[in-house]
Structure formats: structure tokens, C-alpha cells
Design a protein that fits this description.
There is one protein chain. By secondary structure, the protein is α+β, with helices and mostly antiparallel strands. The protein has 2 domains: 78 residues, Glutaredoxin; 108 residues, Glutathione S-transferase Yfyf (Class Pi), Chain A, domain 2, CATH 1.20.1050.10. Helix content is 50%, strand content 9%. It is built from 8 helices and 4 strands, in the order βαβαββαααααα. Helix 1 runs antiparallel to helix 6 and helix 6 crosses helix 7.
């Protein structure tokens, strides 16, 4: 099974690339941009008219949305053991966490990085950004409390949820008013452990 991944540094496509490395499936990276002022491949825009990445293609199929791609890859490559089986009690926490990451934590980041999407006028954008900063504090605290004293998000089992968590922590910028990762010691502990994996070293290196 071979994949094509539309990819841009600093985006959620980096997390999908880590997954592909963990799985060991061959893939081709297609570099693109998230800047709407720059041209983007027609194939990418046909699949995802929003212009975002990641976009994953295989055979005659394609999909976008990082959480959806994560679940799909884990279920298609069960041999990689990156997600609990459907009939296990950990499965619900796995799905819950991925959806919370994509719907709550990522939205908090968007309030800051893409405030124009949430404000009626440019003058209102700073207010949206401030709310984003507060929401980042709130959502990361929820995740920190959820992890507690567990080794990984799901307990003893490393999973794609831990990769997703690491990816999101690389977006935290205290210079923009975001909380620092040190404010969430359980999150930091998991992120530090994920960073040691060879797949993450290959994809992120010194970028984080």
C-alpha cells in the first residue's frame, strides 16, 4: 500500500507523516502551501476546497482532516498497534481524545492564528485572539488532567493519540500569548517521550 501526502511544514500534515513512518508504509510527499496567496495544486484543491493539509491519497481514494486520517490509517494498519481495537474499553477514550484535539484544541489555535475567521471586522480580531489564548489554557488543562499519572494518553499503550498530542504542542508559542507547555506537566512528559521516537526525530528534527 502506497500513499501520497500533500504536506506543508508546521501543519497537521507533519503528524500524518509521523504516522506513515510508524506504520512503515511507502509514501510520497507532495510539498504545498497553506498560503492562500500562493498557487496550490489543482488535485489538492479538488479533494479539499478549503486548501488545507493534510490531504491523503491512495489507490482511487482520498480524504482530508487530520483526525479522520489518523483513525483511518490506524484501522487500516492494525499491525502497527497505534490504536485500541474497536471492541476494547480504551477505544472510546482514543476516539474521544482525537475528536477533542481536532474540534476544541485546534479551534483554540485557530482563534489566534486565523482570527479573521471568527471576527466580523479586523478591529474585532484581537478579541478573538485573546479568547483563543484563554481557550488554549482551558483545553490543555483538560488534557493534562485526563493524562494524570498515566504513561501515555491511553495508559500503558502508546498510540496515535500521543503523536497527535505532540504535534499540537509544537504549535504553542508563548511569544503570541499562548500558555507554555511547562504549565501542563503531564502533557509535557508525554510530549517529551514522543519526541524520542525515531519517526518523530525524522519528521520534526529541530523544528519543534
Amino acid at each position: 500500500m502506497s500513499y501520497k501526502l500533500y504536506y506543508a511544514d508546521g501543519t497537521a500534515s507533519m503528524g500524518v507523516r509521523v504516522l506513515l513512518e510508524e506504520i512503515g508504509a511507502p509514501y510520497e510527499l507532495i510539498k504545498t502551501s497553506i498560503n492562500r496567496q500562493e498557487p496550490r495544486p489543482a488535485e489538492q484543491l479538488k479533494i479539499n476546497p478549503n486548501g488545507w493539509v493534510p490531504v491523503l491519497i491512495w489507490d482511487d481514494n482520498a480524504m482530508y482532516e487530520c483526525a479522520a486520517i489518523t483513525i483511518y490509517l490506524c484501522d487500516r494498519h492494525t499491525e502497527a498497534n497505534l490504536a485500541p481495537a474497536i471492541d476494547t474499553k480504551e477505544r472510546s477514550l482514543f476516539l474521544q481524545t482525537l475528536v477533542y484535539f481536532s474540534s476544541s484544541v485546534q479551534t483554540a489555535f485557530q482563534l489566534d492564528y486565523h482570527a479573521h475567521r471568527f471576527a466580523d471586522t479586523p478591529a474585532d480580531e484581537p478579541s478573538a485572539q485573546r479568547r483563543g489564548h484563554r481557550r488554549l489554557q482551558e483545553t490543555w488543562q483538560v488534557i493534562d488532567d485526563q493524562i494524570g499519572d498515566k504513561q501515555w494518553i491511553l495508559g500503558d499503550q502508546f498510540s496515535a493519540a500521543d503523536i497527535y498530542l505532540f504535534m499540537l504542542t509544537t504549535w504553542l508559542e508563548t511569544s503570541r500569548g499562548h500558555p507554555g507547555i511547562h504549565e501542563f506537566p503531564n502533557v509535557q512528559r508525554v510530549a517529551d517521550a514522543v519526541m524520542l521516537r525515531s519517526s518523530v526525530q525524522l519528521v520534526y528534527g529541530n523544528k519543534n
